[in-house]
Amino acid sequence: MLNQYIIFFILIPILGLISSSFFDNKRENNIYTITITVLIIQLLCIFTFIIFWILGDVPVLFNKGYEVYKSEDFILAINFYFDKITAFYAIIASVITLIICKFSRTYMHRDKGFKRFFNNILFFYVGIILIIFAGNFETIFIGWEIIGLSSFLLISFYRDRYLPVKNAIKVLSFFRLADFLLLISIWICHHLFKRSITFNEMSDLQNQHKTIIENSIYQLIIPLLFLFVAIIKSAQFPFSSWLPRAMEGPTTSSAIFYGSLSVHIGVFLLLRTSPLWENNTVFIAIVICFGLLTSLIANSIASVQSTVKTQIAYSSIAQIGLIFVEVAMGWHLLSLIHFAGNAFFRTYQLLVSPSLLSYLIHDQFFNFIRPNNKIKTNFYGKIKMTIYVLSIKEWNLDWIMYKCLWNPIKKTGNIFSFIGKKWVIYFLTPVFIFSLYLVYHKEDLPLLIIDILPSLFAFFALIMVLKAFTERKNAIIGLIYIVFNHLFISLSIGFNENFDFYQIHLYLSGIIISGILAYLVLRRLISLNESISLNTFHGHSKIYPKLSFVFLILCLILAAFPISTTFIGEEFILGHIHLNQYILIITISFSLILDGLAILRIYSRLFNGPNYKSNHEIAYRSS
Questions:
Q1: Do residues 81 and 200 lie in contact, with contact meaning Cβ atoms separated by under 8 Å?
Q2: pLDDT tens, 568-602?
Q3: pLDDT band at residue 292, thresholds of 50, 70 and 90?
Q4: What's the DSSP call for residue 238?
């Protein structure tokens, strides 16, 4: 009976977010009152629910939720789940969010982004509650996307400055990489279990799916993919460098995101997926190695950093590394207690950091003690100095990620620099129309051609999104590349048997409509004599806030954010890729993830950053 009420924990913050959106920025009291009332009601409901749950002998609860779409061979459902992990995380998330919002009432007073801040916090809370109460991986993915978007918006909260916007894109790129791995993980689970497996079923894997558990693909690939998703989201080694860059937003948002809640979602994912790997000794050893290595490196970096936020960020990363070890060892209760302690402590540290910093500076002026500069030249001294220098440079993790990950993508995109707007119009458009004809008449084609064409079209789609990602001249050209990326993705799946073309039409309906409207927004900017070059940040949101908001919504639809038919269509596409089509799933998933990054980069370049009418100096490098 209790499982029927789980849905209310999702609806309450959504209703609060909708209600607060009706007030303008000057109505601070109304916005704050709605936010704080929603969080208090939510917290009281959670406590009441848990009391009845405990009186009922703490059963594991499952709610089928809502079926977004259902066909003969595909079901996209939002399921909900409640157990001890859910209860613990829900209480901590609600209490910390309430504390942050209470503190932010004064901290954000008379800020021109007051409403935007509180709406983003509520939006983030919706996402994290969706993840905590998720009953399957699809629901987790929806919450995952919401957290990623709200992080992007809050990091770039001061959108008239260069560094917050630049670092928001950098952090988003890490999140999109995690999304890519999560999509691959969900796709493999779909094929192995022949359906979308729920967490309720996952608790009894040893009895119901013993043959799948013994499968070599299961043993090696699935746990490792989920591990890397958790590592990226929790900023573990070697992906630790994004966390301090994410603290460009307001201090209170840094506290709730990167000090307490968002950064611990990787731990939650490991706890939730533990039935998949709890008897896998090799995997447990890998998790322990990553956790210990992260803890040691992050602790060495935190000890020598000069900025208080960076120190707190790496200290939190070090503790999360130890929590990873505890989860791997099976000490789930200890990991939950450790999570709560670390979350509250980092929240407190970040909230008092501005005051603490001023006290330390004052103390330094009046009680200065000259440091001891004697350096031992023996072997131990050299090792110590090497670690010190590496820690000062944050072990060059940012540089390594750029050289090994993002720079190769940019270089690959530049290989296709010969592809221009005319090439797309006069070559790819006829190719697409002819290929569309082949899709609708595929029964007349030889089997060899049918086997080759999906990978070929997926390759064309990848080229288009790489071009969009590296486009620097014109936003309209980048937008055209992104639309063509989606068109060729739809073609690549159309050749798989038993594919309903209604699903492709559903997918493309969101793409084509949002693409046309986004084009009209860009033409509107041109008519207003504004630049749409992607060589720099223009900050058009300062002068055209409504155009900025509309273009952001259109970008989210193009990026398959879960507010449109594009998201449902994306699930269809991934669900119809066969288990033996490894190249196809990797190419399409990477295209979809890079597509979201490319379109939000276009949005940031046009509408965020310092406006040309501003007279402020621009800082191009983070401290």
A1: yes
A2: 777 777 777 777 777 888 888 888 888 888 898 99
A3: very high
A4: T
Tell how far CA 211 is from the center of its chain: 33
Distances (CA, A) of 451 to 353, 428, 442, 492, 572: 59, 21, 11, 10, 20
| Closest by CA position to 30, among listed 96, 161, 97, 119 | 119
Tell me what the mean pLDDT of segment 360-375 comes to.
56
DSSP characters over 510-578:
HHHHHHHHHHHHHHHHHHTT----SSS---GGGT-HHHHHHHHHHHHHHTT-TTSHHHHHHHHHHHTS-
Looking from the CA of 202 toward its CB, the CA atoms found within 13 Å total 22
16 pLDDT above the threshold of 70: yes
- Secondary structure letter of residue 135 according to DSSP: S
Residue bearing the bigger pLDDT, 618 or 535: 535
* Contact of 313 with 221, CB cutoff 8 Å: no
From CA 71, how far away is CA 87, in angstroms rounded?
34
For all residues of the chain together, what is the average pLDDT? 82
CA distances from 501 to 440, 485, 508, 546 (A): 9, 18, 11, 36
| Rounded-to-integer distance, Cα 2 and Cα 20, Å | 29
Which phi-psi region, left, alpha or beta, contains residue 500 (left: φ > 0; alpha: ψ -120 to 50)? beta
Overall average pLDDT of the 6-35 stretch: 88
CB 279 within 8 A of CB 328: no
341: Cβ–Cβ under 8 A, 6 or more apart, which residues?
none
Q: Which percentage of the chain shows pLDDT scores above 70?
A: 89
Return the pLDDT at 589: 84
* pLDDT at residue 539 greater than cutoff 80: yes
Supply the pLDDT for residue 552: 92
The yes-or-no verdict on residue 368 having pLDDT over 70 is no
Q: How far is CA 347 from the centre of its chain?
A: 21
**Residue 198 per-residue DSSP state:** B
Which stretch of DSSP H or E encloses residue 491?
helix 475-494
Q: pTM of this prediction?
A: 0.88
- Is the distance from CB of 504 to CB of 490 less than 8 angstroms? yes
- DSSP structure string for 301-339: HHTT-SSHHHHHHHHHHHHHHHHHHHHHTT-HHHHHHHH
Paired tokens of 247: 């603290």
Name residue, tokens 């090792």: 383
DSSP calls for 375-393? ---SHHHHHHHHHHHHHHT
Q: Which residues are within 8 A (CB) of 58 and not within 5 positions of it... i.e. 6 or more apart?
A: 84
Q: Distance between CA 601 and CA 475 in Å, rounded?
A: 10
Q: Where are the domains of the chain?
A: 2-362, 416-607
On the question of pLDDT at 438 being above 80, the answer is no
Q: pLDDT class for 498, splitting at 50, 70, 90? A: low
- Report whether 164 contacts 248 (CB < 8 A): yes
Token pair belonging to 451? 């086997």
pLDDT at 621 (0 to 100): 59
**Alpha carbon distance 438, 553 (integer Å):** 34
> Given CA atoms 523, 524, 530, 534 in this order, what sign does their dihedral have?
negative
Query: Could you tell me if 75 and 197 are in contact, meaning their C-beta atoms sit under 8 angstroms apart?
Result: no
* Angle value at C-alpha 284, between 281 and 287, nearest 5 degrees: 155
